[in-house]
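A common beginner's mistake is to predict each chain separately and then try to dock the pieces by hand. The better habit, illustrated here, is to supply every component at once so that their relative placement is modeled jointly.
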Amino acid sequence: MNDSALTKSINDLASDLVFLDAREIDIPSSGKFMNRLEAIVKTAEPLNMNAVIHVAAGLNHILEKIIFDNLQDRELGFSTFEKGIALMQEINDNCGQTGNCSGDIQPFLDAVASVTGVVVSADPARVSDAPEAAQASEEAVQIQDVSLVKDFISEGLEYIDEIEVNILNLEQNPDNIETINTIFRPFHSIKGVASFLNLEKIRDLAHNLENLLDKARNMELHITPPLIDVVLDGADALKAMILQLKDQIENQPVKPLNIDLRVLAQRILSAEKSEKELPPNRKLGEILVGDGLVTQDDVNLAVKAAQVPPQKKIGEVLIEEGKVTPRQVSQALRKQTEQATDASTLRVDVHKLDDLIDMVGELVITQSMIQEDLSKQINADKNLMRDIALFFRITSSLQRTSMSLRMIPIRQTFQRMSRLIRDLAKNAGKAVIVEMHGEETEIDRNMVDEIYNPLVHMVRNSVDHGLETPEERINTGKPEKGLIILRAYHRGGNIVIEISDDGRGLNKQKIIDKAMKKGLISNTENLSDQDAFKMILLPGLSTAEKVTDVSGRGVGMDVVKQAVEKMRGKIEIDSTQGKGTTFSTSFPLTLAIIDGMMVKVGQEIYVIPTMAIRQALRPAKEHHNLVVNKGETIHVMGQLLPLVRLYDLFGIEPVKRDPGEAIVVVVEGENRAKCLLVDEIIGKAEVVIKSLGAGLKHIKGVSGGAILGDGRIGLILDPEGIFELSEGKT
Amino acid sequence: MDLQIKILVVDDFATMRKVIRNLLKQVGYENIVEAEDGVTALRTLKSQKIDLIISDWNMPNMTGLELLKAVRADEEIKTTPFLMVTAEALQDNVITAVKAGVSNYIVKPFTAEVLNEKIKKIIEKLG
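With all components supplied together, the output reads:
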C-alpha cells in the first residue's frame, strides 16, 4: 500500500528542505515546513501510519524550538531535521514495497529529545522571560520622554473610560465574547505601552486584569458580578495611577493612592481561580438533576424514550413515569427561561425609552392622519391605500413592541411588599407567611411606582385588620401563622393584582350599620355582599375599632380607591367572614394608551374609554321616559338608566336632540351605569393620552386629550366625572 | 543596510505607534508611515510601496493575524515582510502566525537593538 497523496506531501517537504538557501531554518521557512507537516499528518491519520505521524510530531518540535530561538545547537537541529525527513521517506517507501508501514523511529525520537531538551517547553512563560525582555526594562528608561508619557496619559484615560462603559454592557451580556474583547483590548494596550515606559505598577496591574479577561474570553471563566467588580476596581486603580503620573509630570502634588495594589492583585488572582460556574443555559434534565428531583440515569433514559416515536418532550416522559410532578417540571422550565432571558437583556435609560414610546405614539397619530386624509379622496390610488394599510399594521405592532420594552415583571414590587408585610406583622405581634404568585407578570414600568402606595395600604389593611392575633387564630382552629397571598396575572388588557389574607374577613352587618349611621345608605334592600364590602372604600367609613400604628390614621380605603381610579383601575372586594378577604385591583397595563370610542356631539369629538362602554343603541320611542324624581331614563335590557345629554353638560349645540334619532352609549361608572346621548359614533381608536397641562388638570368629566386622526383634539371623557356632573355635584 | 526602507507601523494605540516610531528612529529608520488598524493598513499597502510591516497582534476590527493573512492572500503585496508584535510570546499565537507566513515576531517590550536585529534579519533574507 502506498498512498500517492502522502508520498507527494513527503516529497514536497523534502524538496523544500533541499532548496533551502543556507543550512539554516528561519521563521518563514519554519512556517512553510509546519504547514507541510500538517498536511502529512492529515493524510497519514486515516491510513493509520503512526510511525509517520510520530516523526512529523518530532519534526514539529524541532521547528518550535527554532521559532522560539531555544535551540542550543542549530547545526545539530538542522541535521536532525534532515534525518527525520529521510526517515519519513524511508517508512513511506517500505510501506509501498513491503507493506510494512512501521519503522524504527525510536532513534530519531531520541535525537529529537536530545536536541530540543527532553520535554518540549510546556511553559509559555519561559519565552516571555527570555533575556530580551530583561534587557528591555533597563533600556526602557532611555526611551522615556515626556511627550510620550503625556500621550500615554491622555490615551490611557480615554481607554479606561471606554472600559467602564463596556463593562456595564458586559454585565448585561456576560457571554458576548466581543464585549469581553472590547474590555480586554484597552488593558492590553495600556500594558504594552506601560511596559515600554517602564511604568511597572501600571503594567503589572493591567497585565493581571488582561490575564483575567483572557480566561473569560476563552470561556475558562464565567463572567460573574464579583468578577465584574474586580475588573471595575482594577480599572479605577489604573485610572488613579495614571492620574498620579499626570500630576507627577505636571509637577503637581501627587495624590496618594488609596488602593492597596497587593490586595487588588490578590483579588484578581482569586477571581481567576474561581471555578467556572454552571453554564448559562442548562438543559431541563440538568436543572431537575441539580434540584435533586431525579437522577442522571432517569434523565438519560427519558432522553432515549423521548426520541422514540411518537416523539415527546423529556419533561412529559418524566411525568408519565411518575418521576416528577408537572409542577416541578414547570418550575424547572421557568428556571430555564429565566436563564435565557437573563442572558439576553440590555439595560437602557428609561428616559430614552419614554422618548421612543412617545415618538412611536406620534407616529401612530400621524399615520392615522394620513389614512384619514386618504380616505377622503375618492380617487385614491389603490396601491397607495394598500401600502398605507400595511404601514398601519407595522406601526401598530411597532407600538406594541415599543410598549413592551417598558414592561417589567411585578416581582420587585411584590418583594418590597413582602418585606413590608413581615415588618408590619412583627410590629403588630402577628405571625405571617407571604406567598407570591405570578411575580413574572409584566407591567408598565411607569405604573410600578403609582400602584405601590395603594397596594401598600391594602396590605396594611390586611395585616392590621384582616389577620387575627396568633392566640385568636389558635382559638378559632386556624394555623398560628396567618397567610397573605400576593397574586398577579393578566386579564384582557389589564393586570390584576390580588391581595388575599386568611384572616377574620369583613363583617357585612357592621359595615351596613355604620353606613346607615353615617347616612350613606337608607335601606339594605338588594344590597349584595359585594356592594356592602365596597362601602369600606367610601370616605369616613372605617370599621376598625381602634386606630393602630399602621393603618386607620384617617386615611382610609377611600384614598386607595381614589388612587386606583386615577390610574383607570378598579377594586373588587371579596370576603367570607371567618375565612378571609381578597382585595382585587385591576389596572390597565399602561397609562400611555387608551382604547377609545370616538363619538361626535355637534362639532366636537370626544373619546369614551372602551373599557367603560357597555353597549350603544338607538332606543325605541317607548323606551325613552321621563320618570318622576329620576329625570329622563332609557329602558335598556330591563333596566331603567338615567339619560345624560352630553351637549347640555358641555354647553354645545347638538345636531340631534331626540334619542330616537341620535345614539345612546351606555357607560359604566364606579357603581352605576348611565346613558350618554351623542350625535353619532365615529369609530374605535387607540389614542395616546396627552395631559391637558397643569392648568386644566381638574376639569371634571375630562381625563385628558388625544390628537385624533384628522389632527384635531378630542377630549377623553371620564365616565364617573360625567355622572357626577350630571348629578349636579361639583 | 538600507535605512531608507519604508516601514508601516500598525497599532490601534497611538502612543504605541509613537513608541515604535521612536525606537525605529533611534536605529536610523526615518521613513515611517502609520495605520491605526488592519483595514487602514491594507489601504496604505495598496496605495504605496511598503518595504516592511510592523503590526500589533491584538487590534479591533481586524487582528494582526487577519491582516497578515490578508496580505499573504493578496497577489500584489503578498511578499511584503511582516514583523508581528506580540505581548507575551504565547506559543500558540506565534506558531499560528508562523504558519500564516509571518517573517518574524517580536515580544513587547523590546529595545531598539532587538528591533533592529529582527529587521536586519528580515531584510538580509531579501538580499
